[in-house]
Amino acid sequence: MEKVTGIVTCFNREDEIEPCLKSVRWVDELIVVDSFSTDRTVERAKPYADIFYQHEYITATDQRTRAISRASHPWILIIDSDEVIPDELRDEIRQELENPRYGKYRVFRRGFFLGKEMKHGGWQRDQNNMLFRKDTYYFSDDEVHPVLLPDDQPGVFKNRLLHYTLPTLDEFVDNARRYATLGAKKYLRQGRKGSAVNIFLHPLFNFCKNYIFRLGFLDGARGLISAVLSSCYVAQKHARLWELKEGRRNRWTKY
User: Fold this and answer.
1) What mean pLDDT comes out for the span 45-55?
2) The Cα angle at residue 81 between residues 77 and 85, in degrees rounded to 5
3) What proportion of the chain, given as a percentage, has pLDDT over 70?
4) pTM: predicted TM-score of the whole model, two decimal places
5) What are phi and psi of 2, to 5 degrees?
6) Which helix (H) or strand (E) holds 133?
7) Which one, of 78, 94, 85, lies nearest residue 10 by Cα?
8) Confidence bin at 255 (pLDDT 50/70/90)
9) d(C-alpha 197, C-alpha 238), whole Å
10) 61-75, 149-163, 165-179, 204-218, range with the lowest pLDDT
11) Domain-wise residue ranges, the chain
12) Please, what is the average pLDDT of the chain?
């Protein structure tokens, strides 16, 4: 089997970090990068790691790239600290590494929101890059959801990764605030317009898409909460873009 280095980045995940790391103990080398957690994450993560270090979080790409540079093996497996590899997926990955057919692999995720699995509303479409050759691929510099480049054909695992995301509404709101700002800055660099029309229409479309067309209502109250909060995030992102553009415009009109 090809040798593989596992990488997990974490911050304040004392309740999730051990199940995550236990599910990836089978790799040949495990690197854990902590962003100076203030809870018991470090204490619980260290015993599982072959390499453990702390580094200030700047972007996901920066954190991952630093870890990849320390990896000893040709294949990289990356999961987040709120994810767990079930046994069926572990066995599928190991079997694939006996004779890899692709240079990178993606995985669909089973998302758990507010303590329960979400099966509609776009959650069932959620997927992520998981396994790739170190000497061939690298992450883009996008602040939000960096992609693995070059963008060629990946393999896709049949079994799903478990994603225990956003266990509380407070965490959802905090994440949305941070990602909305990062997303707005990305839009600004791309020259996109911040307008009242976009602030209104994009969230409305997002809600209809996820709650109605993607059957989010079948997930009950959680489906409604997810659709509403997701749409609020979209509204906040476009409002932040408007704020950034107005701030730049006002700065120039002072002179």
Assistant:
1) 97
2) 55
3) 97
4) 0.90
5) -60, 145
6) strand 127-133
7) 78
8) very low
9) 10
10) 165-179
11) 4-112+126-164, 169-253
12) 93
User: Could you write out the three-class secondary structure of 3-34?
Assistant: CEEEEEEECCCCCCHHHHHHCCCCCCEEEEEE
3-state secondary structure of 155: strand
Q: Are 101 and 135 in contact (CB under 8 A)?
A: no
Contacts of 177 (CB under 8 A, 6+ apart): 236
Label residues 162-172 b or e (16+ Cβ within 10 Å = b): bbbbbeeeeeb
Residue 192's nearest CA partner among 233, 150, 245, 231 is 245
Range 4-112+126-164: architecture per CATH = Alpha-Beta Complex (3.90)
Tens of pLDDT, residues 73-101: 999 999 999 999 999 999 999 999 999 99
CA-to-CA dists, residue 79 to 32, 64, 149, 154, angstroms: 11, 10, 17, 17
Q: Give the model confidence (pLDDT) of 143-176 as tens digits.
A: 778 899 999 999 999 999 999 988 889 989 998 9
The three-state secondary structure class of 64 is: helix
Cβ atoms of 248 and 195 closer than 8 Å: no
Contact 64, 10 (CB under 8 A): no
| Helix, strand or coil, per DSSP, at residue 221 | helix
Rounded Cα–Cα distance for residues 68 and 148 (Å): 13
CA gap 75, 5 in Å, rounded: 6
